[in-house]
Amino acid sequence: MTAGEAKVEQANDGPFTTRQLLRLDEALRLADQTTGLNFSIYCGELTEPAREAAEKLHGELVDPANSVLLAASPEQRQLEIVTGEQARKRLHDRDCKLAAFSMVAAFGGGDLAGGFISGIAMLVNLAGRA
């Protein structure tokens, strides 16, 4: 770690630093390019029931059928992975559960950005190339 890395501040009063946001953006961009699917993340409060809230967010994406949404609410200890109709053909429930376990492990260690990046990487590997 360099001195510059130690002084990174929170970005926009959100849960991620500027550096973490850049890493997340890169992971999402590579996931989209590799799989041909559209990956998105949401980090914030999910109204109850959390699954329905995540599905609603997923439905608001530009191309829901080809999209994968990773939605986490750290304060509520909720995590939902929502796949669209076409994405579901390549990412089954079992695949999403594996990614969720990986994410939860990182979240439990206090690494929110790393959890999302880990989950995205696992889903990309399981979905395969476009």
Structural class: alpha+beta
Radius of gyration: 15 Å
Helix content estimate: 40-55%
CATH architectural group = Roll
Task: Supply the number of structural domains.
Answer: 1
Task: Note the beta-strand portion.
Answer: 5-15%
Note down, in words, how this protein is organized.
It is a single chain. By secondary structure, the protein is of the alpha+beta class. It has a single domain (16-127), classed as Roll (Diaminopimelate Epimerase, Chain A, domain 1), CATH 3.10.310.50. The chain has helices spanning 3-6, 18-35, 50-59, 93-108, 112-127; strands spanning 38-43, 67-73, 78-83. α2 packs parallel to α5. The longest helix has 18 residues, at 18-35. The N and C termini lie far apart (36 Å). The relative contact order is 0.17.
Write a concise keyword list for the protein shown above.
globular, Diaminopimelate Epimerase, Chain A, domain 1, alpha+beta, 130 residues, 3 strands, 49% helix, 3-stranded mixed β-sheet
